[in-house]
């Protein structure tokens, strides 16, 4: 029992291996069935026909021969000469059945005489010995066997043509004449072979018809299957609105209906999820937008307060100082939140410019009064096409983070190298290394997470908790990356490496294409750019 | 300039308007305020301010439209306050004819610095003139004529043309121009330059779409070609 299914499965897999396509399998099976049916029907028809045709021809010839023997050979005188025999044979052969006759008898002189109706065509040598013996043999007369001699026949082939040979001995006092007949079966053979041909052609036609039918059947089955396959592929590519046209009530229609239901519920689910996500993102975006207006008012007034600080009551001055510094922090937080929501919504854009990287790094450090705490290793003249504001955000976050957690001096080095992924153009690599204790291994994978606090024991950072995440997003929008690792022990602390393509134009164009719709467009500006590119050619 | 700059602040939010007015007054400016675009346009005609600080998000006609309407008749400097620093707002604002923009929440000092920089653009420096084909730049009178006709240029456009004309045939990068014209630090928005160049081309070039005077130098910036 256990072997049976495995054998079946083996057979199926063998079949599938031999006939990989369903269409081929259907055609082969149809052809085999048609062939079996047609061949067996034709074979049976052929054999029945052959039997009937031959039997009828034989019986007619043999009956006629028997009668002719009785009429002619039976009336011959006891002592006959060869001439009489020949005459009798010729007379017998003149029958409608169209056969040759050979009469054998003993002549007066005691010799045997074989007289044929036509000597050229029929001689005693043509009669097989076994038939001759059977005809000549005298059997004892009993209850079952009423006569000592019988009529025997046999089918033989002479010179490639089929013949019927029959023989009988006249019953009476010996010696009696023995007669043989030879009838050509060529007409019957021709009839049968033409029948065979017809049957063969019919079988062939049936086979072709079956294969065409199989093709048609395969097409009707496979077209919906292919449509289903196409639809499933489109669904997989994210075109969730894909549906199949359902026609009929067969199993394939049922399958199509099931597919449509599944696609519909999938689409609905995805729509719900993305609506929920969009609304939560919109909430954060709206919230930070809403925060900006009061923040603007507060900041403007805070500056007034700050300038008046010296003239304030010493009891109030610390409170004002706190308000001023916390306002600034809140400002940064709102600013960073805005930045994050722009990345999430895909509305962030690159504003590319050609800049000297060393100048940018120097300016970034200079603007924040970090010159004493940073060692810069960068050659002037490394030009890159990137968004200078975003590069500044990345650098400020990386260097600021290094100063905060690692301590000075922070080493910043700028290199260019071929892109490791084999992409076109060079890559810019900016390394920011600090002298601190490094980042714990379990924290390393999370350093770019939003609001990730390494541990409760770590001193509360002054940043918003979004800095490194924003730096990473800014690298990504350039088609770049930031990696973090620890320098080998004894050589320093954490090392952040920023990789950027030296020409971010292609990335910017792709970004523009992908996020172009739904976020508004500025065709005039785009036109300006295109025209700028074009006019120098 | 010796006299106190007279600003018109158009801002719909009461708190922001009051706070900015307070801050700007403390920085030594004379400030008039309007709560809507319509009021602002009326005040502009009545009081002729030196500069406009304009919020983008206004009830009724928005800041971009106000900007466009002002530019039809006047070339005075306009600084946009964009509540959203969405890049699309900046681009539309610059195309509407704004000279500079500041992103909310605004630092009072930053706004003050931008205002002073814009005001300085109208100051004359030298007393010579330059001719570029049909274009005549008179640095003494601070006027530009094309085929003898006066061109209406904003102070920013004029300053950009002056800076380019001072170094004919020499390409200036966008960052250089930002420092020279806008007095921005190293992080200036290069789209300010692009937008201003487009506006300037529309006024000085024969065919603005195929410029012959202000040429783009790929990978560098812009240059003013000396007459052939």
Automatic annotation (TrEMBL), chain A:
Domain Histidine kinase: 286-504
Keywords: Kinase, Membrane, Phosphoprotein, Transferase, Transmembrane, Transmembrane helix, Two-component regulatory system
EC numbers, comma separated: 2.7.13.3
Name of one Pfam family that matches: HAMP
Ranges that cross the membrane: 24-48, 195-218
Keyword Membrane among record annotations: yes
Subcellular location: Cell membrane
Segments for region (Disordered): 506-537
Catalytically driven reaction(s): ATP + protein L-histidine = ADP + protein N-phospho-L-histidine
Residues of the HAMP domain: 219-271
Cellular component terms (Gene Ontology): plasma membrane
Gene Ontology molecular function: phosphorelay sensor kinase activity
Protein name (Swiss-Prot/TrEMBL): histidine kinase
UniProtKB/TrEMBL annotation, chain B:
Keyword Zinc-finger: no
SMART domains associated with the record: REC, Trans_reg_C
Top-level taxonomic group: Bacteria
GO cellular component: cytosol; protein-DNA complex
Residues the record lists as 4-aspartylphosphate modifications: 55
Keywords in alphabetical order: DNA-binding, Phosphoprotein, Transcription, Transcription regulation, Two-component regulatory system
GO molecular function, one term: phosphorelay response regulator activity
Name of this protein: DNA-binding response regulator
Lineage summary: Bacteria, Bacillati, Actinomycetota, Actinomycetes, Kitasatosporales
Signal peptide: none
OmpR/PhoB-type domain residues: 127-226
Species for this entry: Streptomyces diacarni
UniProt domain Response regulatory: residue ranges: 6-119
Any GO BP: regulation of DNA-templated transcription
InterPro entries reported in the protein's UniProt record: CheY-like_superfamily, OmpR/PhoB-type_DNA-bd, Sig_transdc_resp-reg_receiver, WalR-like, WH-like_DNA-bd_sf
Record flagged with keyword Protein transport: no
Regions recorded as binding DNA: 127-226
